[in-house]
Amino acid sequence: MSDATQNGKLKRALGYGDLVFYGLAYTAPVAPLTMAGFVWTVSGGLPMLAYLLGALCVYFTASSYAVMTSAMPSAGSVYGFASQTMGRFAGFIAGWMILLDYLLVPAFTYALCAVSLEELVPHGDRATWIVATVAATFAVNWFGISVTSRVSFLSVVLQLAAVLVIVGMCVFALFGGHGSGALTLAPLIDAGKFHGASVLAATSICVMSYLGFDAVSTLAEEVKDGNTRVVGKAIMTNLAITSGIFVLTSWVVGNLLVGFPIQDPATVIYELLASIGGHKASLALAWFLILVVGVPNVLPMQVGVARVLFAMGRDRSLPSVLAKVHRRHGNPYVAMIVSTTISLGIALLMRNNISDLAIFISVGALVGFLFVHLSVLTHFGRHDGRRWWAHVIVPLCGLSAVLIILINLNATALTVGGCWFVAGLGYWLFSRRSQEAPRDVFQQTNP
User: Fold this and answer.
1) For the chain, what are the domain ranges?
2) For an engineered disulfide with 57, which of 21, 95, 294, 401 has Cβ 3.0 to 4.6 Å away?
3) How far does CA 28 lie from the centroid of its chain?
């Protein structure tokens, strides 16, 4: 047991490679396959365009994350950035809003895992499969970040191989007469299908698939030797790899989906594979998604939300019990128990309405992104040595891109986000009156 763990600090055990593979495990290289039905339906048949716009939006945001992680490493990620640059209230709102995304994404993944298990055991109950998936991922994460990192590495390697095989099958099917019959630009631009609001709504879904960089930033306090520069490097590496995979995959699959009948967006990839490779190919993918993707993909999600809760509990923006660290495994176990329980409840509640969950899942992350860009502008606005591209132009472009997507979100998504914001504001006001003001663990830096 390390001194750090004894003192309630997180265990420093991660290097650059660990961070990259952790981020890839969070985003999941197979995401464009499992999300194909949702993105195709919402975008009106332009999934490649939606993923490209998502990558552009996320590039500016990831750059701001990399800058802030080097300047202010914090397990709380956007919560820590906003708290140090704009004060406790801004930090609380930023952390509270990003928590919405961090709680919904695991719930969405649990539900998708249950769908895969239904493909394998048609008479099984979806709620039972959700509980089983949650129990399996929680058990692995309980033993600390080192174990999670090793599982993530193996999962990513196998996922990359699977994507290569499936994309190859899709290309072969295309030139065999399926879909559009060739690799056309139809999934990228088609005047007859283009509708700005629909594409932006789909882009908000795609943004969720790129969130590995945000998860990487939550591990800034667990890097070996405290070398936080590798965190920014890992963030940009993660984005480069995922952007390439997502755009290429959505291009190929988007062509194959032309004319394909969609009954349920959650099962499109299974039906598509069954049509080009037979029922066995569909079953093989279902087993793969459960064993290699489902459980390992949720691991970093549980880790990320627990770190944000840990940071907010440590600062007493949320109950301080959330900052408790396991004496042996060095993880914020109370925060992990609380977040997993909430995500489980959401997954069970929305298990038969996964499409609805996919639509409003990114609103919290987008608001969090706004605070990251504002943190860069606020912090480096006080520095004489600020760099115009990284500290001014990038965050301004990022703010514009995020705002455009936000105002074009589905009305339900905005309603859910608004209700969550009001709940957070209510908690803040109640807690300020009923308890002692939160302890400020951050040191304001003066240039």
Assistant:
1) 3-434
2) 401
3) 9
d(CA 291, CA 127): 18
Q: Contact, 348 vs 26, CB < 8 A? A: no
Task: State the Cα–Cα distance between residues 35 and 245, nearest whole angstrom.
Answer: 13
Coil, strand or helix at 223: strand
CB 262 within 8 A of CB 41: yes
* Each residue's pLDDT tens digit, 222-265: 777 666 678 888 889 989 999 999 999 999 999 998 888 887 78
Q: Three-class SS string for 258-280?
A: CCCCCCCHHHHHHHHHHHHHCHH
Q: Could you please report the per-residue DSSP string of 110-146?
A: HHHHHHHHHHHSTTS-HHHHHHHHHHHHHHHHTT-HH
Sequential DSSP letters for 335-391: HHHHHHHHHHHHHHHTTT-HHHHHHTTTHHHHHHHHHHHHHHHHHHTT-TT--HIII
**pLDDT, tens digit, for every residue of 253-300?**
999 988 888 877 877 888 888 888 888 888 888 777 777 776 666 777
**162: Cβ contacts below 8 Å, ≥ 6 apart:** 29, 30, 285, 288, 292
Residues 9 and 221 sit within 8 Å (Cβ to Cβ): yes
DSSP 8-state code for residue 291: I
Q: How far apart are CA 313 and CA 141, in angstroms?
A: 20
Count H helices, E strands: the chain? 21, 0
CATH for 3-434 is 1.20.1740.10
Amino acid at 105: V
Contact 92, 428 (CB under 8 A): yes
8 Å CB contact between 299 and 152: yes
Q: Which amino acid is at 172?
A: F
pTM of the full predicted structure?
A: 0.75
Give the span between the Cα atoms of 286 and 282, in whole angstroms.
6
CA-closest candidate to residue 367, choices 96, 67, 60, 88: 96
